[in-house]
Amino acid sequence: MLTIGLATGYLLREYRDALIHHPATRALADIVAMAVVALAHTACRALQRARRRLAAILDDELGRRPRAR
Asked: Does the pTM exceed 0.85?
């Protein structure tokens, strides 16, 4: 992921003027950005759901006791 980020940053810096002046490129970048946000949101929800399931399993196995917060 770091390599992809570095390569993308380099390409954006080198070809910034050409990318900004083409509306199709901007539209594609917007779609990719929205997809990344949606994927991150879905991943966060899946991790939260897994955390709740794991907590429920541990509560059942170890008995009921209050959680320290």
From this structure: no
Asked if residues 31 and 38 have their Cβ atoms less than 8 Å apart, the reply is no
Please tell me the distance from the alpha carbon of residue 22 to that of residue 17, in angstroms, as a whole number.
9
Does 33 fall in a domain? yes
| pLDDT tens-digit map of 12-42 | 787 777 777 778 877 888 898 899 999 999 9
Distance CA(33)–CA(60), nearest Å, equals 41
Structure tokens belonging to residue 64: 């009921």
Residue 67 belongs to some domain of the structure: no
Residue-range definition of the domain harbouring residue 47: 2-62
